[in-house]
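Protein modeling request. Please complete all fields; requests missing the sequence field cannot be processed.
Requester role: graduate student
Desired output: 3D structure, token encoding
Chains: 1
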Amino acid sequence: MMKMKRQREEDRDRDSLSNLPDEVLLHIMKFISIKDAVQICVLSKRWKDLWKDLTILKFDKSLVFDDAIFEIFVSSILSNRHHSTSIHRLDFITGWHRSIGSELFNRVMSYAVLHNVQQLTIGMQSNIVFEPIWFSCRSLTFLKVSFINYRQRIEIPKYLQLPALKILHLDLAVFTASDNDCADPFSTCNMLNTLILRSFRLDDDVKVLRISNSNLSRLIIGHHHSGQPPVYKIEISTPNLNSLTIIGFRRHSTTDAGLDVRTDSVIVNWLHVLANVKIMTLASCTLCTLLNDLSKSGLTRTQPPCFARLEALKVKKLPSVKVLDEEKQDGILQYLLQNSPLARVEFIT
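Delivered output (349 residues):
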């Protein structure tokens, strides 16, 4: 009796779901992997082809451990999906110690671009030969490319043809020269408001990386690998920048186009250039380096930066990094903020 009652309740719940509009069911499915969505659709005849209209595709190889099965699964999804349906978001994640063929990867990227993908996330470990056609995708608003293998690099074209792009996140990027030994790839992205660069390098023929964009409001630059990062010259021209985060850099030369600020500390030099920021985040190791630089020249001989619009200075505490004692930390923070009396200090992890 109890078994029959439970069966009736399950049938009623299934009927309730079946009566929902397709739009609602598709909205529910976007929170799960494409693998789970396909499996769910076999529970009902009405749902059988519903997954084919999903606009969010999440290919995560951690859910399918066999390489051959993963390639067959991805190929099957692309072949059987309704081709008239655009893609809102596509994630292609292989993770650590996962290999994937170049042919499949390039097919997925071509499919995404042809179906007007808006948000694209790539996370790979493989050493593959790829065609970076996503760098000329006119529908993209969000792009994150992360190659976990340090030997694999993303070669950035001279100019990015991404007119709708708002957020760009690049790990292990290599920048090539666009003009006069200078890489200036971001100036053509007129909608870009957030730029994140981690562990990049310049090609052999490039002497300067120019970050030039009149719309950019948030900039994060970091070095996240062991060892000292290489030394590069960086020019920054971002008049609307209001949030800056610098992590892991120690001896970089930084300037602004048309501005000559001479100090004994390259970090202070950088901070002078970014006088219009509203929110600034510095790693604890950056404060240590800044203190060491300034102690060589003396704080009184180095003109402190002036952040006229600064609202908050955030200090990010990194694990396994030596922290300044409270007196030294207070001293360097007072130096940085002596021309910004209204700014508050926040400590984050």
